[in-house]
Amino acid sequence: MFDPYNNHTCRSIVTLVLAILFNSWSVQATDGHDLWLTQQSSTAINVVCQARISPTLAIAVKELTNGWQGPKGATMTLKISNDNSLKKDGFRLNPTEVHANTELGILYGVYELLRRQQTKQPVHDIVSNPSYMYRILNHWDNPDGTVERGYAGHSIFWKGKDHLEVTADDKRLWRDYARANASIGINGAVLNNVNASPDILSASMLNRAAAIAKELRPYGIQVYLSINFSSPVLLGHLSTSDPLDKNVMAWWDTKVREIYRLIPDFGGFLVKANSEGSPGPQDYGRTHADGANMLADILKPYGGLVMWRAFVYRANDNDRAKQAYTEFIPLDGQFHDNVIIQVKNGPIDFQPREPFSPLFGAMKRTPVMPELQITQEYLGQRHQLVFLAPLWKECLQSDTYQQGPGSTVARCTDGSLYRHRYSAIAGVANIGLDQNWCGNTFAQANWYAFGRLAWNDSLSSRQIADEWLRLTFRSATAGFSEEGWTKNFLSPVRHILLQSRESAVSYMMPLGLHHLFAGNHHYGPGPWYAPKGVRPDWTPPYYHQADSAGIGFDRSSKGSLAVAQYHEPLQSQFDNPDVCPETLLLWFHHLPWTYRMKNGQTLWDELCRLYDRGVKEIRDDQKSWDQVQSYIDAARFTEVKNELWRQEKDAQVWKDGCILYFQSFSRLSLPPDVEPPVYKLENLMKADMLQINNVLPFSAEETLRKDTNENAQTGVPINTYQK
Prior knowledge:
TIM Barrel; alpha/beta; 3 domains; Chitobiase, domain 2; 39% helix
């Protein structure tokens, strides 16, 4: 019986056995709970704190004492200064001193000093200021303890309305969470889901939120809450939630006073309104500005913020990608100064690749904050290794041309171009109760990367990858030479990280294809998914528009006109398929299957080759991972090896499902250098990839290969799906 994975599986078993034996002798094991803060042996240090010791400064002293890697017996001075070159959280660092204008600045400087020592970076006279004032994790955690789009267990904050007591384990967990965040400069946490339950504002829930805030406070983490806009009706039993109704205003005023009595440093509200069925001011004939400003006026005396999400779209419009821009641009300048509009990095929904949202750079009189997704809802969830820093850098470095060349998304949002009172960035967290917090080891890298980019949006993906790999793995392999470790572990694993996002795009949705996911869980391929009764913009055919003539969504001047939402020269560039970046080609254009790419290949052939390349790159990653076995403990080596094995299978399913489905429209054969499909389309269309191991056992593949060969011999396009 033919099993295409059989030889590989045998080799893997041998490799695993050898790895376990070797690693049991030479590499320290870890359960991953310490993240990038793994305890290392330290040398003695004398810490002089020229300020009154507070809980925050006490943490700074403890971190230095426990983590110092410099000369034994050295003296390090922590000093509160009045340095005009420093922002609120910024710091000045040299080999003997950490200066800052605030206690938190001192703490951040200490973490930077220790990071530099552990990652072999020089410590010289450094001034470091955060790119964004507010660097916030959005937790999509529900009061019952579940986590929407969470792949690492239940909530670290909530256990249900019947389990609101605070235990010693809760406090210890929250402090560990706060420490990890502070070490990378994150200073805020939204504790609950944007699809908010009104119960979050109940007295019992607020008391638990106050307990959480108490543990996070010494580490500089402010607490925020997502609110349901209909809370005055659902919780307060009013007859309306109209933001201009005096009784509604009074209800919110009372609720806000209650919150600040419990949480004096409460950060404010995150609001999802009039989106995907959620209530909002438009239900009462009011605008987003009316709703946001009502809340902002009530929060302002306390210093609170309103983060109002721009993730809005209506059914049956001709292009969902246009709707946030269309709805919010007319309101630019109408929002009060403590309102920030929170905008997803792309105009659809955290896709593996999108152009940047045209709202960045377009709203000149209103602060806009990027919303990035750390949890891998659309990028393999907990089962696939995808490093997201390159995706986020692609967005942040994109030039909006709002004020000419150099008007990048980063500069439009971090205060460099527009001198708004506040700047902020948010990341949808991937954190849960799993022992290693994130579901798998490499998912921790994305939490780390978000924090580092939120602090310094000019950092490169390579530098972030290097830092995380050294902090996470180097201490466990102290017995290996620096040269050997760098060559044999750091270099190949860094390559896996930096290539991983592009590999995922290739085997999922190359050339600007998007939203091809199966319904509900967004894990496997589903370009065919279009059940009756489901609104069109929740189905993949709405986005890929495949037919006998070609494929792609026409957003050009001849289509939906989405290109008009971008400034020149982007508008003209995106509008012309001959100069449009090929990575976004099918985002902006519906093109013939025979359209000639820049390399001379047809669109169909290039599409097939990219899908094929994505699968092969994951196989290369597997080989690279096998080679680092002696440099990592057995538990983590096995965990990642198993995930890469599954990722290869998943990539094969993505490739086969998409190529075979699109082939039913193109009626063209695969290029001869592309490996033929393993699976039959009709089987994949019935399968759920989360359960693919059971639905499509390896023993079935001999038959599938036989069918493929017979089709190839008859000259019929292989595995053509007969509709």
